[in-house]
Write a structure and sequence with these properties.
This protein is mainly β. Helix content is 12%, strand content 38%. It has three helices and 13 strands; from the N terminus they run ββαβαβββββββαβββ. The longest helix is centred in the N-terminal third of the chain and has 11 residues. The chain is globular.
Length: 167
């Protein structure tokens, strides 16, 4: 995890494999401390296979929100925004301590563990996260304060999934 101007910069998971190989000959560095509170976890910005616009394909794009706190947090009013301004606003949803909720790009029935971007914004039959180039996900609390941000640079592979660990 890199920091630039106070924004966490995540390195795509594939780069982490290279780091493991390099780590075999380089001295081990201390693992970063796990971030507390509500924050991004794993983001799959490019689902497996070609982007054909199907609901299953769009739902393979997702952002995980993790509560590392010791008590449940009401997410109502929290927002997830991409660099182009596409914004999802959470309705009433409580995330338990140590729990994760997954925000999927496509549509479906909201549950306590999965929410769907299309459910909130009807007619948004498109992808949210850029598969190639620079992208940033920002998480805002109900008061509009940025509580987490994760940036990455996708390679745009047409046939394999790309993701980033933003913890």
């Amino acid at each position: 995890m890199l920091r630039k101007n106070g924004v966490r910069m995540a390195v795509p998971v594939a780069a982490g494999v290279v780091g493991l190989l390099v780590g075999a000959v380089a001295p081990a560095a201390a693992a970063p401390k796990h971030q507390g509170g509500v924050h991004f976890g794993f983001i799959q910005y490019n689902g497996p296979g070609a982007d054909k616009g199907s609901n299953a394909s769009r739902n393979s794009e997702f952002v995980q929100i993790h509560n590392a706190g010791r008590s449940a947090v009401q997410l109502q009013g929290y927002k997830v925004r991409d660099k182009n301004g596409w914004t999802y606003t959470f309705r009433s949803l409580k995330i338990g301590a140590g729990k994760t909720v997954t925000l999927r790009t496509g549509s479906g029935r909201n549950t306590s563990t999965n929410v769907y971007w299309d459910h909130r914004y009807r007619g948004r039959a498109a992808y949210v996260w850029n598969n190639s180039g620079k992208e940033t996900a920002t998480l805002y609390n109900a008061k509009g304060k940025s509580v987490d941000s994760c940036s990455w640079k996708g390679k745009g592979h047409a046939s394999k999934a790309e993701s980033v660990n933003c913890h």
